[in-house]
Amino acid sequence: MQPSVARIDEALCVGCARCLPACPVDAIIGSRNFTHTIIHDECVGCGLCLPPCPVDCIAIEPRFPGAPADDEDEGMRRDKLRGLGKTAQRRFRARKVRLAAMGDSAEARVSGAPPATASTPTDDEIEDLIRSLS
Questions:
Q1: 8 Å CB contact between 85 and 44
Q2: Which of 34, 43, 93, 134 is most buried, judged by most C-beta within 10 A?
Q3: How far apart are CA 12 and CA 17, in angstroms?
């Protein structure tokens, strides 16, 4: 099975920002009332951004179009996916710290959920995050 990636048709995007909190790895950039785009190197192709989109402008496509999965060396493909997974984990941890620091997170504002009750990260947690991203 070939790895996937999400793509936004920017001509159809209405800038509602509902896809932003749905992405577990923060691979979508943009802001309300502006078109959004996907950082393809960060996207893990999970498809969690599809359901919240009211105009169906997001599609999941093969990461390497035109290259059958059987033609790609299994070891190279595994290494690519492992690298993507590690990057996604780092971005997810950074997102959790950032949302915890925000308190009333963007995620809660978009979803209508009650404000977050997480405490502000400690200096040690922030230093750990910075080290993990270096």
A1: yes
A2: 43
A3: 13
Strands annotated E in the chain: 4-8, 28-29, 37-38, 58-62
Residues 28, 20: Cα–Cα separation, whole Å: 6
CB atoms within 10 A of CB 21: 22
Flag whether 56 is in a domain: no
> Does residue 123 sit within a domain?
yes
Contact residues for 88 (Cβ-Cβ < 8 A; gap 6+): 24, 25, 42, 44
Residues spanned by the domain of 100: 69-133
Dihedral sign computed on CA atoms, order 57, 81, 106, 51: positive
Alpha-carbon separation of residue 121 from 1, 100, 105 (angstroms): 39, 7, 14
Residue 32 included in any domain: no
One-letter amino acid at 112 equals G
pTM of the model: 0.51
The length of the chain, given as a count of residues: 134
Please determine, for residue 47, whether its predicted confidence score (pLDDT) is greater than 60. yes
Asked, for residue 12, whether it belongs to a domain, the answer is no
Number of domains within the chain: 1
